[in-house]
Amino acid sequence: MINKVLAYAQQHALFTLEDKIIATVSGGIDSVVLCDILHKLKITFCVAHANFGLRAEESDADELFVKKLAKKYNVPFYSEQFNTQEFAQQEKISTQMAARTLRYSWFEQLRQKLNYNYVATAHHQNDAAETILLNLTKGTGIAGLHGIAVKKEYLIRPLLCLSKDDIYEYVTENQLIWREDSSNESTKYQRNLIRHEVMPVLKKINPSLETTISQTVEKIQGAEQIYLAYINQVRQNAYRTEAGVTYLDLEPLRQATALPVVLFELLRDYNFNYDNTKAILETFAGISGKTFESATHVLVKDRDQLVITPKDLRVYGSFEINETDEYFEQPNLKLQIRRAAAENYQIPRGRQIAALDLNLLQFPLKIRPWKEGDWFVPLGMNGKKKLSDFFINEKIPVNLKNRIMVLTSDKSIVWIIGYRLDNRFKVTDKTEQVLELEIKP
């Protein structure tokens, strides 16, 4: 069994015998086997135990058992107690999700503090099979068919080559003791329901179910490499980003094979689900302006593109630029500020730079969000124009309008930042000093 785990680790480049590993140990049978195998491989490791405080005295007894286990192997022991239920209520997530979030965050903090190479969990083939069935039941893309990743950055699962039967065989041969978690028997948890009531039925059809699923996962991972290569090809043709805004051009998307699936993958990072994707697809042939929201982003169908912006980027209040400032920076805007003599000055092209007549400005200048009723005199024109009308003419998507800032001098708009100067403050042959402001990434 030990040689099987070592060969599996070498096959997937999980660790070397010289690496230092944090073993995550609950005290259950799986993590006890993980500890014993690391010990027999003579790997430098420590034991980390997360006490979630969900089972009162039973949780404390688990922690004491794991502490004694670490002493048995003569390795360092670390533990952390969490108020899991309070965290779950605060974040509005399930208790199981709260426990997962808390423990993995702590494991990684501990790894960095100790300067260890990896964090090892004791997941095995049965866990992977249960995860796949759970994902299929809830709905998933191809990524959900992996089950549990063998390695993800510093997190490793060296026991994924073993089944639960292998685990029981190992503890019997090595006369190991462990603690049973009473909550593992409760079918109120979805995973336990699959473990106790679904898996036994499937194993009647295929007694080697875990091994079969493990082999299927390997095939899926291979197919996914081809799948992701195609997704990335479409992404390169359709995707661009500017100043924190993502644009997806529709023409390359329309030519894509299996467009609903491709678009789902492209939008998944912005937390749009498959139902969102199908609704967004229906707008491809429609008029502009349709808006969709995920938990984190806003998407607008704008002519021949999709425009995606993070939520909560609207800025409130105003900011000042003083006469001697060389930089301006706030979360959504960074400006470099320069002064130059007008003689031999070449007025720059492009919307990212504003060249202004310094003598016409009154400091401090102010930067604020635009508001209804704002007007300016567009560069090259003599008459006033409302900003709202200017945005319509410029065909600016609604989710970008909310991000637009203006530069003002004594309440007069000098620059719609990133779009258009006001004609009254432009550089002319009478200008003596130039104030130049450039938008930086």
Radius of gyration: 30 Å
Low-confidence stretches: none
Mean pLDDT: 89
Q: End-to-end distance, in Å? A: 54 Å
Largest sheet data: 6 strands, mixed
Q: Would you kindly provide a written description of the structure presented here, covering whatever features stand out?
A:
The protein is an alpha+beta fold. The chain folds into three domains: 2-219, 3-Layer(aba) Sandwich (Rossmann fold); 243-310, 2-Layer Sandwich (Uridine Diphospho-n-acetylenolpyruvylglucosamine Reductase, domain 3); 319-439, no CATH class. The chain contains 14 helices and 22 strands. The protein has helices at residues 2-11, 29-40, 57-72, 84-91, 95-114, 125-138, 164-174, 190-205, 209-238, 250-254, 259-268, 274-281, 387-394, 398-401; strands at 20-24, 44-51, 77-81, 118-120, 151-152, 155-156, 239-242, 245-249, 291-293, 297-302, 305-310, 319-321, 327-330, 333-341, 353-357, 365-369, 375-376, 385-386, 405-409, 412-416, 420-421, 433-439. Strands 3-2-1-4-6-5 form a six-stranded mixed β-sheet, with helices on both faces. It has a five-stranded antiparallel β-sheet with strand order 7-8-11-10-9. A hairpin with a 2-residue loop joins β5 and β6. α4 crosses α5, α6 crosses α9 and α11 (259-268) packs across α12. The longest helix is centred in the middle third of the chain and has 30 residues, at 209-238. The two termini are 54 Å apart. The mean pLDDT is 89. It comes from Adhaeribacter aerolatus. Its EC number is 6.3.4.19. One of its GO terms (cellular component) is cytoplasm.
Question: Keyphrases for this structure?
Answer:
441 residues, alpha+beta, Rossmann fold, Uridine Diphospho-n-acetylenolpyruvylglucosamine Reductase, domain 3, 3 domains, 14 helices, 22% strand, tRNA(Ile)-lysidine synthase, cytoplasm, nucleotide-binding
